[in-house]
Amino acid sequence: MSPELIQTIITAYFDTLQAMNSVGWAENFTEDAMIQDPVGKPPNNARENAQKFLGLLAVVFERLELSQDQVFIAGNGAAVKWTMRGLGKDGKQGTAEGISVFEIHASGKIQRVSSYWDDDALMAQMKR
Description:
Helix content is 32%, strand content 43%. By secondary structure, it is of the alpha+beta class. It has a single domain, classed as Nuclear Transport Factor 2, Chain: A, CATH 3.10.450.50. A 6-stranded mixed beta sheet has the order 2-1-6-5-4-3. The longest helix has 16 residues, at 3-18. It is globular and about 45 Å long.
């Protein structure tokens, strides 16, 4: 798989996540794709739980901005260092940084995502 195709897949993941578009986001994954976001929480089937996963974000955030700060592509995968900035429904803001590791299936869909970041710290910012 070409690095350009992998970058396109990763960009679609971040774009649909930022838009909180659960249908589009689910389309980025294979049927049995697993996501662990953040690592330490139980893994979930990305397609089956897309509505729930993004619905939780939509309850808290008015707007999300995600930047791909650095992308490291190797083989059929990538690691992305990212920054997320959120504006809460109540006007409060929060920022988080993390790294997500992607495994891409030969079909051009995401097979697995493992994200390393502190979601509790972000939520604490949103509550102050």
